[in-house]
């Protein structure tokens, strides 16, 4: 059987992969029955060699190929695509072949089309807006506790929309209240990593004020605190997207409570975003937003290392 697991929700993707492995591979022989291959350099001969190997002490063999999609875009590797088309129908029944991609692929992408012919394509997108609060509540219940709606909103506001980051915060909160305990707004404010949001606001402030040195200092603080460059970039992109949305709201309706309801964010985030918006013209916001999206694309396509792409983007958007 062949699968494609892709999408922006890395937490859900890894969870789906773990569930598949747990269902098909005995835990005692994972090291013997699971193989991970680098799709950026993979040859069809190497793939066939691993997929054709008989499983040892396990009913199935799991072969995971990561990062192949980029090579198949725009016909860059037509020979490899043809080889895959010829081989997949002959894949051993005892082998589970999983293509894992860390970004969302279009429905027309060659890998999506190919796997769709012979197996299953599973895309996972992160929850947004009110759906994010419902997702938080469901994760808390799975961990054996309860959370109030206000606490859900505050956790989403302070920890961002990355499911992996949120799940880490949820685990901390559930550990604190214990089984069947309740998480309220006060507890989220005390235990969740609200400081990260303040640091993101400080970085956006520095960008708005064209203070390049200050922006680089705020970026360095976030990196030294252990925040991944892609997480930082996603939070800054999110904030500039909110700033653009606020610019589209009539000036007379830009009250924190109204903006919070319209954008589905916490009032604290709305209040800060309204204040920050005064430092930008709409055309500036659009330019910065698109430059940050370009940095995200550079990272995910491997054109630049994550930190370098982020630093270059900040240098550019804080220029004249």
Short description:
With about 325 residues, the chain is α/β, with parallel strands linked by helices. Helices cover about 60% and strands about 10% of the residues.
Q: Can you describe this structure?
A:
- The structure is a single chain.
- By secondary structure, this protein is α/β, with parallel strands linked by helices.
- It is 61% helix and 9% strand.
- It has helices at 10-24, 30-33, 44-52, 69-72, 78-87, 110-118, 129-142, 149-159, 163-177, 185-191, 194-208, 212-224, 229-247, 256-263, 267-277, 282-300, 306-317, and strands spanning 2-6, 34-38, 61-66, 95-100, 120-123, 146-147, 182-183.
- The chain has a 5-stranded parallel sheet with strand order 2-3-4-1-5, with helices on both faces. The protein has a two-stranded parallel sheet with strand order 6-7.
- Strand 2 (34-38), helix 3 (44-52) and strand 3 form a beta-alpha-beta unit.
- The protein is globular, with a radius of gyration of 22 Å.
- The N and C termini lie far apart (54 Å).
- The model has no long low-confidence stretch (mean pLDDT 86).
Q: What descriptors fit this protein?
A:
single chain, 320 residues, alpha/beta, 9% strand, globular
Structure classification:
alpha/beta
Number of helices: 17
How can the largest sheet be summarized?
A: 5 strands, parallel
Mean pLDDT: 86
Strand count: 7
Estimated helix fraction: 55-70%
Succession of helices and strands: EHHEHEHHEHEHEHHEHHHHHHHH
Low-confidence stretches: none
């Amino acid at each position: 059987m062949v699968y494609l697991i892709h999408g922006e929700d890395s937490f859900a993707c890894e969870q789906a992969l773990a569930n598949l492995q747990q269902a098909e591979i005995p835990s005692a022989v994972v090291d013997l029955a699971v193989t991970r291959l680098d799709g950026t350099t993979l040859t069809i001969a190497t793939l066939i060699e691993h997929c054709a190997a008989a499983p040892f002490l396990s009913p199935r063999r799991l072969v995971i190929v990561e990062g192949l999609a980029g090579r198949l875009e725009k016909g860059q590797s037509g020979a490899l695509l043809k080889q895959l088309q010829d081989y997949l129908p002959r894949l051993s029944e005892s082998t589970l072949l999983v293509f894992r991609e860390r970004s969302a692929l279009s429905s027309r992408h060659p890998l999506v089309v190919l796997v769709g012919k012979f197996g299953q394509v599973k895309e996972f997108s992160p929850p947004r807006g009110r759906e994010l609060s419902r997702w938080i509540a469901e994760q808390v219940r799975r961990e054996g506790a309860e959370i109030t709606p206000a606490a859900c909103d505050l956790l989403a506001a302070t920890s961002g929309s990355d499911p992996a980051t949120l799940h880490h915060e949820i685990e901390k909160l559930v550990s604190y209240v214990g089984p069947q305990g309740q998480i309220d707004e006060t507890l989220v404010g005390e235990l969740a990593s609200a400081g990260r949001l303040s640091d993101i606001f400080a970085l956006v402030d520095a960008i708005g004020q064209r203070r390049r040195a200050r922006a680089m200092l705020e970026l360095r603080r976030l990196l030294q605190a252990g925040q991944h460059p892609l997480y930082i970039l996603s939070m800054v992109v999110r904030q500039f997207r909110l700033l653009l949305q606020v610019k589209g709201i009539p000036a007379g309706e830009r009250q924190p409570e109204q903006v919070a309801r319209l954008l589905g964010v916490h009032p604290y985030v709305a209040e800060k975003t309204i204040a920050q918006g005064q430092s930008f013209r709409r055309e500036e916001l659009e330019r910065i937003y698109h430059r940050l999206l370009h940095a995200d694309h550079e990272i995910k396509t491997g054109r630049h290392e994550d930190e370098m792409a982020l630093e270059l983007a900040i240098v550019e958007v804080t220029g004249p």
